[in-house]
Amino acid sequence: LQLVDELKAALSAHELCLWLQPKVNAAGQVYSFEALLRWERAPGQFVPAQRVAQLAEQYGFIVPLSSFVLNEAVRILTQWRDKGLTFELSINLAGPDIIDALFFAELVSLATHQPWLVDVLELELTETSIIIQSQLMFEKLSVLKKLGFNLAIDDFGTGQASLSLLTKLPATTLKLDRSFLTGVPDDALQVKVLQTTIQLAKALELKLVVEGVETDQQRRFLLRLGCERMQGYLFARPNSQAYWNRQKLFQP
Ligand code: G
Ligand code: G
Ligand code: MN
Ligand code: NA
């Protein structure tokens, strides 16, 4: 059986799952989680999410895959709500999702029938996926933002987003790609880029999440620069939902 056929079968059988990685605020509290797709093809053998998404795009079933992710996210958020928890949750989407009429209708339907969801659900799109899709994509995102969805530009800084595009894009959050953090705080040039990005986000009134925080030195340095949201292995790696229940991280 080819990998892609196995993946299709796994998706149909709902054998994929979402793992969660926390994002923390300046006070060090978890305020949000990113949902990351996991396919355990065989016991202990996880296929990288990037590969899964790439296969789904290549073979034309990224929308059903993202639809599964969206439904799982809604299920998790509903559980949290029932427990009185107020965490946000972000999911990763692909460019084709946004311009797909059915997937778009699913999002609109959620916003209409469960308006509380749009405040806690964030849609992450990579900078690259947004640029490629252009005008239609732009219009769809504008509608989603009007409906109240939070839109994050993922891997920010690695694509070709121009500054002019950035001022027009209906985003609410920038997620600075972790490659910008590798040399911080020693690399003076990288520090300047980081400082400038923090200022840029403030000027554009966008939230900024810095990804890839791995050391306490980086965390303290980022705090001093005025960075209020971070994600990275320092705080936690992506883990199964069962893990987070055990961690009792749900008590803020
Ligand atoms: O979690 P991991 O390091 O395996 O993620 C690798 C890449 O896969 C990341 O860039 C992430 O954005 C992407 N990814 C993770 N989960 C999903 C998902 O549910 N959908 C899509 N389209 N991409 C995902
Ligand atoms: O591109 P995106 O932000 O969606 O990628 C998320 C992926 O990045 C997750 O799958 C996670 O495994 C990975 N990641 C998260 N935090 C860190 C980190 O601190 N260091 C490294 N190297 N990878 C990370
Ligand atoms: Mn992401
Ligand atoms: Na990223």
Automatic annotation (TrEMBL):
Part of the whole protein covered: 464 to 715 of 735
Residue ranges of domain EAL in the record: 1-252
Top-level taxon: Bacteria
Species assigned in the record: Alkalimonas mucilaginosa
Protein name according to UniProt: EAL domain-containing protein
